[in-house]
Batch of 2 targets.
Target 1
Amino acid sequence: MNAPVLAVSNLAKHYRRGGQPFPAVDDVSFSIGPAETLALAGPSGSGKSTIARLVLRLIEPDVGRVEFEGADFLALSGAALRARRARFQMVFQDPLSAFNPRATVARVLDDPLRIHGLASRTERPRRIAALLERVGLEAGLAVRAIHEISGGQRQRVAIARAIATRPSLIVLDEAVSALDVSVRGQILKLLLDLQRQERIAYLFISHDLGVIRAVAHRVVILDAGRIAESGEARAVIANPQSAIGKALVAATPRLNRTRP
Ligand SMILES: Nc1ncnc2c1ncn2[C@@H]1O[C@H](COP(=O)(O)OP(=O)(O)O)[C@@H](O)[C@H]1O
Ligand SMILES: [Mg+2]
């Protein structure tokens, strides 16, 4: 593998439940190469979103290391941290809660271009139109408010915003889980196209092995904060070794069809 974009080692995070500390994430290590999709799978509460927050440094780990593009990400601060943050982005399940619902689409896409100084004021409308086209939306959508557009359109806007800074990694936490099946398929295809064209790595979090089989190269299956098993996605899903892997496969009946 090429030098990894993201390398996480021995990550741990404890929370308290009923006064007792418990590990939400327990000794988790993995890495993601350029243009690779690594999926995090596991039942609800297994620690997937906590890992996403740790990787994005929205929360700090108790122990562990996060290396992003070869740099010790947890040691960065100030301008160095801000510059590095432009290189990775995130897309969550519900863009309505991630954005101001009354903001226009243009405003949502203008922010990263302005904040990271990627285009001058006069260039930005053109860049916004190009971003919209890139994710399969009409330029006319720019004037609409976030709350006025459909869930699928909103998720395309979230993806357009994520790629505006030309990131090397996007963390997607249940990014297609709230979409109905046909829209979900279109968004997954868009993600695959963008990955091929821009060589973006994805940390793709999902509880749905059908979706993971369709997009991920490798998968890490979590059980109560620990890695139960990991490997090539299709091989693991075809022949899970861990109890939790077997249970997740058994709970996804459409895996038995040839296409998810
Ligand atoms: N801020 C928090 N405070 C206390 N417990 C938390 C917090 N965030 C998550 N947890 C707990 O940590 C565990 C893992 O949660 P999470 O990472 O959200 O799982 P997943 O995304 O796989 O559903 C769960 O038991 C959850 O209740
Ligand atoms: Mg979650």
Target 2
Amino acid sequence: MSATTAAPRPLRGAIVGLGMMGRHHARLLQTSGLTTFVGAVDPGGDRHGAVADPALVFPTVRALLDHDPASAPELAVVAVPTEEHVPAVLELVAAGVSVLVEKPLAEDPARARELIAAVRAAGVQGAVGHVERCNPALIELRRRAQAGQLGQVFHVATERIGPFPDRIRDVGVVKDLATHDLDLVGWLGGGPVVTLAAQTQHRMGRRHEDLVNVVGRLAHGTTFTTMVDWLSPTKVRRTRVLGERGMLVADTLTADLTFYANGEVTSEWDAARTLRGVSEGDVTRYALSRREPLLVELKGFCALVRGDEQAAVVSLEEGLAAVELADAVLRSAAEGETVHVAPGGHATGAAR
Ligand SMILES: NC(=O)c1ccc[n+]([C@@H]2O[C@H](COP(=O)([O-])OP(=O)(O)OC[C@H]3O[C@@H](n4cnc5c(N)ncnc54)[C@H](O)[C@@H]3O)[C@@H](O)[C@H]2O)c1
């Protein structure tokens, strides 16, 4: 007779911030079976109708925590505006609640470090919601690149353009969107960013930038480019990894992955072949199982809270590194310099 493993007890989960992102987390916290939903916090109430039981919507974190000690949350997803992350996290972790914090981890590196220190001091678990790492197309792209399908990887290019989501008030496109890309380039390219140079545009009359182009290099020589804006009339989410045998292209809107192989060129004159470069070869589109990235993220976080040290989550330190890279991008754009980035992400000075 085969032994069956009982499903683990659902963890008591809450959502803080019921906006555009929080409503999706709220749905999964109520329906995934991974958690027992114990409440939502939003001073503006449940504007998107995300919570089935209106009695579980609270105006403050304090009200959630004081509601019923028997149903105190074990974990909370923090999906408030970026500048509100630190106060929300401080209050939650002081009450012993583990936190999955939406990206970017905080508005600047100092605040991100403050957040991490509070989580560690409280002895709870924390992770950051860089949900692109849970996208099936990017997971498969990375697996194939690491397995050697591309041979040596030359370049990683990300493109994340589209119209402006009017609700973003507190940060610019670098911190709000490009933190995805600044996290992905090293994760996909297999090494940390060591130098970068950036150019920005301010076209919408807001305090913060609305377009950024970054060019840079990873530790072992792979180059990268990142194009991100809120000015384009169509939404594109595309990541290309180019290597000596071809190119893998992921579309994270549709979770599609395509391989463009280099053509086989037969020539008796090898030198001429080198000079001609590559030619077009076979194109393969892979059939992927399309798991919801946010559900994959929540599953990984629940495993972490249960004590699985190998759980597939993006660590708070990786979240800090993305915030530090965003800082380096803004500094490069402001000063018109190429910036060196020390291990761990922080900028150390202009590269000459
Ligand atoms: N992972 C992703 O792909 C992704 C996508 C979008 C947004 N985000 C991140 O999620 C966070 C929220 O973004 P959004 O687009 O949902 O914003 P939003 O403005 O739509 O929602 C934020 C919500 O938080 C509420 N709020 C404000 N202060 C609060 C507090 N102290 N306590 C509880 N609730 C509070 C607001 O009333 C609002 O309903 C941001 O950090 C953003 O960067 C991540």
